[in-house]
Amino acid sequence: MRILVLGGTHFVGRAVVEGALARGDEVTTLNRGRSRPAAAGVEAVIADRTDPDALRQALGDGEWDAVVDTWSGAPRVIRDSAALLAGRAGHYGYVSSRSVYRWPFPVGADEHAPLVDGDPEAYDEEDYAGAKRGGELAVLEAFGDRALLARAGLVIGPYENVGRLPWWLRRLQRGGRVLAPGEPSRPLQYIDARDMAAWMLTAAERGLGGAFNTVSRPGHTSMGELLETAVRVTGSDAELVWVSSELIEEAGVSPWLELPIWVPSDAEYGGMHDSDVSAAHEAGLTCRPVQETVADTWAWLQAEGDPRLRPDRPEVGLDPAKEKQVLDTLV
Description:
This protein is of the alpha/beta class and 331 residues long. The protein is built from eleven helices and 13 strands. Helix 4 (128-143) links the parallel strand 5 and strand 6 (147-152).
């Protein structure tokens, strides 16, 4: 296929580019050219897509079989891109988010769960959930049933620039007693960026449209297996000290942000690791073992160093002094 990737240098976009090249696709990327250089074999188009005139000039009269868009900002930017490409591309895959569902996300919910409001004309990007929903509406407006909305949940793997799995790997590398949250058996639901990229490319080839919860099945792995794998992969002498969710709450430690990836299995957070993903898996989504994701992420960190984290996402990770304070109460 001829693939246009809007973005293509970070995390999911980079995984899409590498996956497409491995398939033998012809890849064009469009971005501002301010970060890492384009991969070998890619036609790199440099432009600021927030400027409609610059976008139009940069894309010229090009045509593509499919577009993959990883934008997380203002919906109006997606609307401009989708409108421009509607007659020049056969398929538009948008990396959306399960954040488009109203909070709290119900346990076991599928793609029919209630959605937040979104405005495809909006220039505002401060409300992440509303911006993602506005982006979905913008793509649907231009491409209709030729639009694929990949509603990712937790995305990890090599190139992660949010910092969740990298934080755990670096923390475990330091060794010592490590605050491990909740129960080791806590099921997790996530997606390796490379698996999402592969599925989106295959979906584009098939002309698959619609909205899909694009993560692993619930219980693909557990919090215990994830952290124990990370201990082995890093060669650390870390001791995992499992602390109940009740004690974590009492200590004022926040799930998800201070303890990345983990959330308690209560009514508020339970749906984040327990949603119905049967539609995506019936449409061909497959997820690699957690051991491969953790090992490859560690290898990437060792090879390229810690990434520059996204400025539009909150910083993750637990302060060492706060971690020690919690652990000391268990002695």
